[in-house]
Amino acid sequence: MEKTEPWTLARIAYASLAVITLALGIAGLFLPLLPTTPFVLIAAWAASKGSPRLHRWLWNHPQIGPLLHNWHTKGAVPRNAKWFACISMSLSWIGLLAIGMNWIILGIMAFLFLSVAAFLITRPEPD
């Protein structure tokens, strides 16, 4: 059994952030406007500072672990994740248009989604 540092306010805050962002990342699998990957990356970072147990679980998870490893070592994003993110953002924007969202909001969201898509597309792919 490994010894961990005592619970401090900072450690509690990081662990809480990790759990909340992981929950948001999981919710993002089902909610089109909520991104998954950034929340999982934040959860992994926060867990490394607040919860060694959650950090290990994330890194050893069969689906999440390889993604974290590829991002950490190469800044790499799998092609299917790029496609899924771009299609989800496109559908989300079309949904906003369909419900009659204000043009200013549509413009801001288009800029945001295009910026994220450009960033994702330019990331290398894992081997």
Task: Describe the protein's architecture and organization.
- The chain is mainly alpha-helical and 127 residues long.
- It has six helices and no strands.
- Helix 1 packs antiparallel against helix 2 and helix 2 crosses helix 3.
- The longest helix has 20 residues.
- The termini are far apart.
Taken as a percent bin, the fraction of beta residues is under 5%
Largest sheet: none
Q: What is the succession of H and E elements?
A: HHHHHH
Put simply, the count of helices is: 6
Uncertain residue ranges: none
Which shape, going by the Cα principal axes?
globular
| Sheet/helix structural class | mainly alpha
Oligomer status = single chain
Lay out the secondary structure:
Elements: H1 9-27, H2 37-50, H3 52-60, H4 64-74, H5 79-98, H6 103-121
Structural features:
mainly alpha; 127 residues
Task: Provide a compact summary of the structure.
The protein is an all-alpha fold. The chain has helices spanning 9-27, 37-50, 52-60, 64-74, 79-98, 103-121. It is built from six helices and no strands.
